[in-house]
Automatic annotation (TrEMBL):
InterPro entries referenced in this protein's UniProt entry, alphabetically: Kinase-like_dom_sf (IPR011009), LRK10/LRL21-25-like (IPR045874), Prot_kinase_dom (IPR000719), Ser/Thr_kinase_AS (IPR008271)
Keyword Transmembrane: yes
Highest taxon above the source species: Eukaryota
Membrane topology designation: Single-pass type I membrane protein
Domain (Protein kinase) ranges: 1-238
Primary residence: membrane
Places the protein is found: Membrane
Highest classification ranks of the organism: Eukaryota, Viridiplantae, Streptophyta, Embryophyta, Tracheophyta
Protein keywords: ATP-binding, Glycoprotein, Kinase, Membrane, Nucleotide-binding, Serine/threonine-protein kinase, Signal, Transferase, Transmembrane, Transmembrane helix
GO terms assigned for molecular function: ATP binding; protein serine/threonine kinase activity
Organism for this UniProt entry: Escallonia herrerae
Entry keyword Manganese: no
Official protein name in the record: Protein kinase domain-containing protein
Amino acid sequence: MAAISRIHHSNVVRLLGFCYEGTRRAIVYEFMPNGSLERFICLQEAKPPRHLLNWEQLHKIAIGIARGIEYLHQGCNQRILHFDIKPHNILLDHNFCPKISDFGLAKLCSRDQSVVSMTGPRGTAGYTAPELFSRNFGEVSCKSDVYSFGMLLLGLVGSRRRINFQSESQSHTQVYFPIWIYERLSLEKDLELQVEMGGDEEIAKKMAIVALWCIQWNPKDRPSMTMVIQKLEGHSQSIEMPPKPCISSDIEIDSYQC
């Protein structure tokens, strides 16, 4: 609570108070009228139907989240590793400004500490970096949050698809979306996104390319959040395609059920 109370950033939720009385535990945040970002990703079964955010809005939200994570990594007296970046933990105010919330799995470390020790994996399946499952993939660091952000970005892009991308030869097997979108981008094919969203599809392509950089299997190959912001604010033509994402059958990485 002490660490969160000292956080002041437009893209991190503001703590108003807390209760710690016997078995009663509660945290009071500022009211966020638009709820969580998850409500605007899983739209297919939403009742009543929810507002469909266009690509400019999604892009602005993505940059806001990235700035919030960068602040946690670089702007605080102590570096804060969130370890649970996902749409459910991104709250939206009345102007759809994103704010990072839920620091229940977060870990504090010094600003000059690049690697942190962990006793076991933490986070949400589908968004958790591979090194949190096995150190064979690399050391746990702020790059673990970068991976989670990349999966969140892919979730934003994937939620606006207008097709059910299944393998033609395996009609009952869901294709791993990062591989699907990597191949579409490499071949310069249409991403099969919803046309009614309006806006520039180049934004969606840029978000997808940045996301693919963020989910590189080796943490050293992922950009810092500062570089992520630069890429998101730049032109898609200036961003190189990353190596093809790896897949491990030992880790549950399918998070595109919406």
